[in-house]
Amino acid sequence: MGGPSWLAWTFASVVLVVAAYCLTRLLASWRQRRPSDRRVDGIHVLMGVAMAGMLVPRLRVFWTGGWEVVFGIGTLWFAWLAIREFRGRPTAGGRPGHHLQHVLACGAMLYMFLAADTVAKARGSAMSGMAAGAAHLPTLALVLAFALFGYVIWTADRLSSLAPVAALAARVAPAPLFAEASAGGRASFAAAGGAGGHGTPGDDGQTAAAHAQRVPLSPRLAACCEIAMGVTMGYALILML
Amino acid sequence: MASQAADARARAGWLPGWRRSIGAAGEESWTVPDVRRRLQLVLAGIWLLDGVLQFQAFMFSKGFSQLLGATAAGNPAVIANPINWSAKIIADHPTATNAIFALIQVALGLGIAWRPARKLALGASVVWALAVWWLGEGLGGVLNGAASPVNGAPGAVIIYALLAVLLWPGRQDRAAPFIAGRFTGANVARVLWLVLWGSLAYLALLPATRAPKALGGMVAGMASGEPGWLFSLDDHLGAFLTSNGPAMSVVLAIVLALVAVSVFLPWPAARAGVVLAIAAAAFLWLAEGLGGLLAGGATDPNSGPLLALLALAFWPLASAAWSAAGQPKPAAATQSATSEGA
Question: Which end of chain B is more exposed for a tag (fewer CB within 10 A), N or C?
Answer without folding.
Answer: N
